[in-house]
Amino acid sequence: MEGGSRQDTAREEEAVMKPLAHQETASSECMYGYIYLYNLPDIFNRGIHANCSTLHPWTDVCPTLENGGLGQSLGESSPLGQVGSWYASNPFMAEMVFHNRMLQHNCLTDNPDAASAFYLPFYAGLGLGRHLYAGSSIESRDGLSNHFVGWLMDQPAWKRSSGSDHFLMIGRNTWDFRRSQDEGWGSGFLNKPEMQNVTKLLLERNPWDGKEMAVPCLTNFHPQNDADLAAWQDHIRGLQRNRLFSFAAMPKDRFPDDFRRILFKQCEQSGQCQSLDCSNGICNDNQKTLGLFMDSVFCLQPRGDSFTRRSIFDCLLAGTIPVFFWHRSAYKQFEWHLPADHDSYSVFISRYDVRNGTKVEDVLNAIAPEKVQSMREAVIQLLPKMVYAVSGLSLKQKDAFDVAIEGVMRSFKGSMVSLQR
């Protein structure tokens, strides 16, 4: 078998890492086919986080690896007393979370000849992260991915399809892997010819690459059952919102024309806004930003260092209506998870209009109360698809992971149908 079977990957270290002993389930449940989970050499996944103290040059990320990548439990400080559903999660651990959930997937097969899709649990983001900020060489940034591609090209299933039925999850944004010049930022992994046919799930996609799709960032909420999810939805639905809008961001001093500064100024001049300056690291505690958003009807979501932000998902988790200024922040990113009718759950205000004097407060105040109520309810109903459950057995409804995998499988089946015509 290519790379061994999924049973070989079972570890006793953590309960969430234990694969379920599936039989190939009924075709109605696996209507898009079965998935073969590669058992990669440890150097490409678990071996990366074995030395967790080296994963980031100045931050200890070891606690975020606990509980299968969900992070440390918030314990008694969990909202609504939901101990077991709240964790201090780091979005960059998404590769580990997806790997754990894939081990529990109901549509796995040990037979590559029976598979419609092949999952590659390569922790590309974790492997690159340690080399991004310390002036590392091109060789150190590209070394692991080059090794991985070399290994992959020797696999029989890969040779049959050139990767067109393979997919992986990368826990960073696409631009960290699209270095076009030797002196540029990041790795050149996604520019490699061998990666062009592979489907990639990322925290931020390249909108011009049809083989990429963005998936929601990890929030701190990972419901352990449907009751906890429903209780949280009821809680945010009943909150008294004391502010019209809120805003959390870190302004960039080196950019005097930074759009976030304009929003901070508008917020300060409004009697209906509350802001949080993240410059001092206070927003590293995502419960603080969650609390900020829970007290407002709308939350402003400009682009940050990249177009997408974890703050978008903390905003949705708070039951707060997001206000976007770039289409690439959400509408062209999370197409499998967010409704095509953007106006049903969000507000879009052109950043150019804001720069030319449009007041965000005036735009939001002009929205009819019944429309606001409808949008708030739409956000609350979106929550199951925005969060990652503790395990694949936690919820009866599809969570963010389920939606992502179904999207991949549906796209593969669609491609096969097109080829057969």
Automatic annotation (TrEMBL):
<feature type="region of interest" description="Disordered">
    <location>
        <begin position="1"/>
        <end position="20"/>
    </location>
</feature>
<dbReference type="InterPro" id="IPR004263">
    <property type="entry name" value="Exostosin"/>
</dbReference>
<dbReference type="GO" id="GO:0016757">
    <property type="term" value="F:glycosyltransferase activity"/>
</dbReference>
<keyword id="KW-0333">Golgi apparatus</keyword>
<keyword id="KW-0735">Signal-anchor</keyword>
<dbReference type="Pfam" id="PF03016">
    <property type="entry name" value="Exostosin_GT47"/>
</dbReference>
<dbReference type="GO" id="GO:0000139">
    <property type="term" value="C:Golgi membrane"/>
</dbReference>
<feature type="domain" description="Exostosin GT47">
    <location>
        <begin position="34"/>
        <end position="361"/>
    </location>
</feature>
<protein>
    <recommendedName>
        <fullName>Exostosin GT47 domain-containing protein</fullName>
    </recommendedName>
</protein>
<dbReference type="InterPro" id="IPR040911">
    <property type="entry name" value="Exostosin_GT47"/>
</dbReference>
<comment type="similarity">
    <text>Belongs to the glycosyltransferase 47 family.</text>
</comment>
<keyword id="KW-0812">Transmembrane</keyword>
